[in-house]
């Protein structure tokens, strides 16, 4: 009977260690930084392109788009993409 008790105690402790080890590794996994970096790079590239297209369309350089400048901006966007 003592052998059975020791075996059960070892099995319970072992399974507890395995569960806690699994929990520790599953919560400490790093985020997919490669994907995040690519997304950030893509977003920055698109924003830079938007700024460049805006500057091309803003013919009077007042920082605002009139209706004709806005139409030009949309044409430039369609041509770029």
TrEMBL record:
<keyword id="KW-0732">Signal</keyword>
<feature type="compositionally biased region" description="Basic and acidic residues">
    <location>
        <begin position="35"/>
        <end position="44"/>
    </location>
</feature>
<feature type="signal peptide">
    <location>
        <begin position="1"/>
        <end position="23"/>
    </location>
</feature>
<protein>
    <recommendedName>
        <fullName>EF-hand domain-containing protein</fullName>
    </recommendedName>
</protein>
<dbReference type="InterPro" id="IPR011992">
    <property type="entry name" value="EF-hand-dom_pair"/>
</dbReference>
<feature type="compositionally biased region" description="Polar residues">
    <location>
        <begin position="24"/>
        <end position="34"/>
    </location>
</feature>
<dbReference type="GO" id="GO:0005509">
    <property type="term" value="F:calcium ion binding"/>
</dbReference>
<feature type="region of interest" description="Disordered">
    <location>
        <begin position="24"/>
        <end position="50"/>
    </location>
</feature>
<dbReference type="InterPro" id="IPR002048">
    <property type="entry name" value="EF_hand_dom"/>
</dbReference>
<feature type="domain" description="EF-hand">
    <location>
        <begin position="45"/>
        <end position="80"/>
    </location>
</feature>
<dbReference type="Pfam" id="PF13202">
    <property type="entry name" value="EF-hand_5"/>
</dbReference>
<dbReference type="InterPro" id="IPR018247">
    <property type="entry name" value="EF_Hand_1_Ca_BS"/>
</dbReference>
């Amino acid at each position: 009977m003592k052998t059975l008790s020791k075996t059960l105690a070892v099995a319970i402790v072992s399974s507890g260690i395995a569960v806690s080890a699994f929990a520790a590794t599953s919560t400490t996994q790093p985020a997919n930084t490669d994907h995040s970096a690519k997304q950030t790079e893509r977003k920055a590239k698109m924003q830079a392109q938007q700024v460049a297209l805006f500057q091309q369309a803003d013919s009077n350089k007042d920082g605002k788009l009139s209706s004709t400048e806005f139409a030009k901006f949309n044409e430039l966007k369609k041509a770029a993409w």
